[in-house]
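If you are new to this repository, start here. Below is one unmodified record pulled from the training split, so you can see the exact layout before writing a loader.
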Amino acid sequence: MLKRLAFGGVILLSLLQAGCPAEPALTITLGGDVILGRDGQVIFARDPWGGLTPAKSTADGSRNWFLVNLESPLASDAGTMPAGREGYNLCAPAEAAEILEMGGVDLVSVANNHQFDCMESADPSRVMPGVGHVLESQPVFLDSPAGRVAIIAADAVSKPLDMVSLLASVAEVRAKTDLLIVSLHWGVEYAGEPAPLQRDQAKQLANAGVDVLWGHHPHVLQPAEWVDSEDGSHRMLALYSLGNLLTDQIMTYETRHYALVQLRFQRGKISQISFQPLLLEQKGGQLALAYPDDEAVSHIEERLGWAELMEFFP
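And here is the target side for that same chain:
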């Protein structure tokens, strides 16, 4: 039975399992792009979270992991910040990593087209000792009472996506984990829908046993959907793009409005799914997150394709 609940700024859709004993659970909150700097200059001068950071644990005490795509690499020191590359340079000072810690971020994906914007990038484990990171072609394993989670990351923007290598990594990792997430930096900037090629690649990942496809780069929301494997034995949640999270891209309605998606896992399956709508706005000359009004929440829900997603909830 599906029941829709709304509270605390989170729209929650739950699968109620009356009479079933409590089992270990894990909640994972997925966010979009985080840009902390441009040309070596900090964008956010103070805590920009606006009190809207995901809780570190849920009502029943289960752990909540917060994952984002870090679009801006961190410089090793002030003398080596921006690299001499064409176009936008998103290199940020290392001290900007404090913003991630303020937000309770647990892990960042750094496999994206801006990962080499600094002349010399800092070691993420040194400047973000409390925040994990996943590099391209280097899976990360996280253990919880609900099981083991693996995250594989790939950049398909600065180069074509190597599906052969990605599928080989998925095949190797699948047997070692209970839940498999693939972080993909891909797609067309500001496009409202994934391209046909992306849907074809998503199908291949579902066939390979991926549980969640976590996409980013377009900087706007795209409709999420369930993707079934060809043999019907597996279903993958495809989040093609979650838009922005913390950036300075407030030039359009779509780049200012986005969402966090929260997934609850039990026995290796998604048992609950919710989203938290967000708005990035200027307050007193500073950028900060806020909760959008009802009209904007409805728009975000529509952009995510939430009604259809819930109609086919496993």
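Two things worth knowing about this chain: The two ends are 11 Å apart (CA to CA). DSSP finds seven helices and 18 strands in the chain.
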